[in-house]
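Ticket #4471: structure export looks truncated?
Reporter: QA, pipeline team
Priority: medium

Steps to reproduce: submit the single chain below to the structure queue and open the exported record.
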Amino acid sequence: MSTESTPLPSSGRKSLPDAMVLATTLGIGVVCSSLGFMVLRQVETLRLQNIQAASARTVQDVLEHDIHRVVEATHTFGLVLESQPDIRRLQLDVLSRRVMTDLQSLSAIRWTPAGAEESAHKEQARVIGRPVASEVFQTPNPGPGGKEVSAIAIVAPVYERDANTDAVGQHRGFVEAVVPLQALLRDAGARADLVGMDLRVYDVSSASRTQNDAIFTRLASLDTSPDTQNHDDSDHHDVVVSLDVATRPWLLELHPRPEFYEGLSSNYAPYLLGAGLLLSGLTTAAVWRAQRYRRSIESARLRATRAREALALEQKRLQSIMDGTGVATWEYNYQTRVLQTSARWAGMAGYTADEMGTDLYARWLELAHPQDLQVFFKALEAHFAGETTHVQSEHRMRHKQGHWVWIGLRASLLERDADGKPLLLGGTNLEITARKETEERIRQLNASLQERMQEEATRSEARATLGTLIASVSHEMGTPMGNSLMTATTLADQARNFQGQLDAGTLRRSTLAEFVTQVREGNAMLIRNLERAEALLRNFRQVAADQASEQRRPFDLRQVLDEVLHTLAPSLKRQPHTVSLEVPEGIAMESYPGPLGQVVINLVNNAYLHAFEGMEQGHFAVTATANDSEVTLVCQDNGRGIAPETLEKMFLPFFSTRIGSGGTGLGMSIVDNLVKNTLGGSLHVASILGQGTTITITLPRKAPAPHNDASA
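Actual output as written to the record:
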């Protein structure tokens, strides 16, 4: 047989569309390569800016930490003077030296009584009742040389307090801590050097942001002009950070040095452009070859009639291959009503050809599952109507041994008569029982995994909430424990002084009376602070035990919700919003206090994160009513409300309007799972935009029995 191809006639009309296709392909490749080049350049610029912002944040964190320690030390010193108005000068000096030993950035702590001339920052501190920073001034250097250095003063007001009610009375004076700027900004400057940045600090309220008006400067060299930089300033800008220094605004300006960008920059954009252009050329060449191949296909159509005899010979070989792969073939003639099959067709059901009989079509209708037959014939009608190119279905057949086997069927109409009626239908059968069993096991495994993932997400959310409560309670206990330690230290010093006078025989009645008064007042302060710490620990201990164990036990609803909200209070008080609890006492339940507390915690956190966004003061109210068998818990806020399209999806896992900004998308999904599955209740949400959201939870007073997960 000759293999030479017959060339097709060509004309100028056909070459023009081909040229246009090639030009379009090349143009698209060039445009995509250019876009990729620009996108990669932009991504590199954003990456460097993110690294620069993160490095600047570390410098800011160091400086905020040092300023916070100085301000808190000054404030604590003032609290000591308020709690001990009769403290002596010697004791005051000892205490100030001890504070300056702990904080090397303090050069002096002075006491100024009321009545003296007040500067602007002192007047501000007296009015607002908390520490205020002064503007920068020059003070003698306490070290050798005597040269003046720049410093600021942190001023804390001191008031008289009632010994019984702890109420604030009249103003007594000020505690003024002198902080040299060099010592205060030493660690921040070291951090700036470490990350490779120049640091300038400005006092916004007293100077403009120019290099000469900076109150502190940390540079790598004197030459810092843009001309000396190795990077384009259009891509890399200075980082300016605002800082609140005891109500006084400062600005931190951080300028990256040349060494900051060493090892960070990557110049892959030109390589991407080159690769894109090369790929465009290769694609154009491939399109050109595809066009030639299409023409060769058109030429091959002319030789199709010559291959019919060869096709008949190949049919026998193809049948042998199909028998070897386990595929059964069949043909059904609609005129004779005869079904012809290969030997493999009967073997799939465990029969021989003789056992199946002569009427194979009737035998097939007898062995096939009735429900699957309905699906098959419906798909066959759609194929006859021209809606599909072929028929593909899966049906069950009764095996000779009595069980069902799955058969995958694929068929198409091979011939029609002049009126379009079907004449010949052909197809293949393949046993897929093993695959169907595997699919069923996978489906069951997926269902089990989904349930476990939901339970694990609930446990992870509970652990995360417990960690947040631990951090909040630990931070809240810092104040009473610090006050108790300072009071105990002061009492110890007073006891030593008293013992010295007693041993020396110089003890007088007035000294003894003064010592007794100091001990009584100190003990009263110790008791108040320790009782406050004990109450925090008591509430947290019960909430933590319920969250960790998730055990079912009898409890009073009001008591559990009180413990949960008291434990949340330290983390919530940083914002101006409020939470109220209107639940009567005596509502006894036998349920799971841990999951119930998790539901309330998630709803409160969800309101603070979403409902109160942009509000000056939001309110979240929890109310409850009960009958003999059920408790209705209503959680209502006066926030922004929820849009209808968001309300429909709010219980879906990983759906959140704040993904990437503090939201995980699991909070309300976990609430829904805990209420319905663990607590055995129901949940309803109603919301109007601009008027708030109401969540109604109905729970049985006696929770259902726990699920048995052993079979999972």
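Status: closed, not a bug. The export was complete when the record was re-opened. Leaving a note from the reviewer for reference: Residues 447-700 form a domain with the Heat Shock Protein 90 fold (CATH 3.30.565.10).
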